[in-house]
Amino acid sequence: MSESQVELYNLALSAAGTRSKISAIDENSKESETCNLWYKVVRRSVLRSAPWASCRATSLPALISERNFDVTWAAGDPEPPWLYKHSLPSDFIYPRFLENFESFLLGDDDGQAVLYSNTEVPVLIYTKDQTVPPAWDVSLYMAMAHMLSAHIAMNLHGKAGRAQKVLDTANNYVLQARIATANENQVEYDSMPDWLLARGAFSGTTPSRFIYQNGPLLSLLGAF
C-alpha cells in the first residue's frame, strides 16, 4: 500500500464528517493536533485486536532466568509454576502463540515485560508494532482510519452518532480479520482412532494447542 500517515489522517477526518484536510502531520492545525493526540493509542489498540498478517513477526526471546526446584523460590525466579522467564522483543505489541503451541503467561519483571513458559527455547509468534502505514494490509489500514475517526469525531464536532458509526465500521474490519485468520489456519493434528485405542494401542499424550486470545474489540468507553 502507498498510503501515508497524512492520507490516513485525511481519511479519518473525512469519515468523521469534517471537510478539512491536512498536508503534514506536524502542521499547526486543530485537525493535525487531534489526530496526533490519538494516533499512537489507536494504533496499539487496533494492532492488539486481531492477528493482522502484515504485522506478524517471529522471535527467539532471550532467557532471563530458570527455576531451580532444588532451592526455595526467590525474587528474580520465574513466577510459579513456570520454569523459564524470557524477555520480549522491543517491537512487541501482542502475543499469538509459541511454535510448539505450549501454554505461556505474560508478566512484568521490575518494569520489563516478560514471558513465562515451560519451554527453554521458545519461538514466539507475535504482533509487532508496525508503525509504517504502507506496510499494512487494506483491512488493517481501514480499521485504523475508522478507529482514529471515532476518537477525533467527538473532539472536532461533538457528533456522538457519527463517532459510533465509524467505531462500528472499525470493529467490522477487526472481526473480518479474525475470521480470515481462522479460515486460513492449516495446522492439523493426527489422533489415534477409538477402535485402535480400544485394542490397546498407545496414543501418547493428547495434543494441546494454546493460542493467546485476541485483544478486546475497539470501544469508546467514557467518550460519550
How does this structure look, described?
With 224 residues, the chain is an alpha+beta fold. It folds into two domains: 5-52 and 136-184; 56-128, no CATH class. The chain has five helices and seven strands, in the order ααβββββββααα. α2 packs across α3 (138-157). The chain starts with a helix and ends in a 27-residue tail after the last helix.
Quick recap of the structure?
The protein has 224 residues and is an alpha+beta fold. It folds into two domains: 5-52 and 136-184; 56-128, no CATH class.
Provide the number of structural domains: 2
**What class would the helix/strand composition place it in?**
alpha+beta
Tell me the number of helical segments per DSSP (H or I, 4 or more residues long). 5
Helicity, as a percent range: 25-40%
Distance from first to last alpha carbon: 34 Å
User: What is the gyration radius calculated from CA atoms?
Assistant: 22 Å
Average pLDDT number: 88
Number of strands: 7
Low-confidence stretches: 188-193
Largest sheet: 4 strands, antiparallel
Query: How large a portion of the residues is in β-strands, by DSSP E?
Result: 15-25%
- Oligomer type: single chain
H and E order: HHEEEEEEEHHH
Shape: elongated
Strand order of the largest sheet: 2-3-6-5
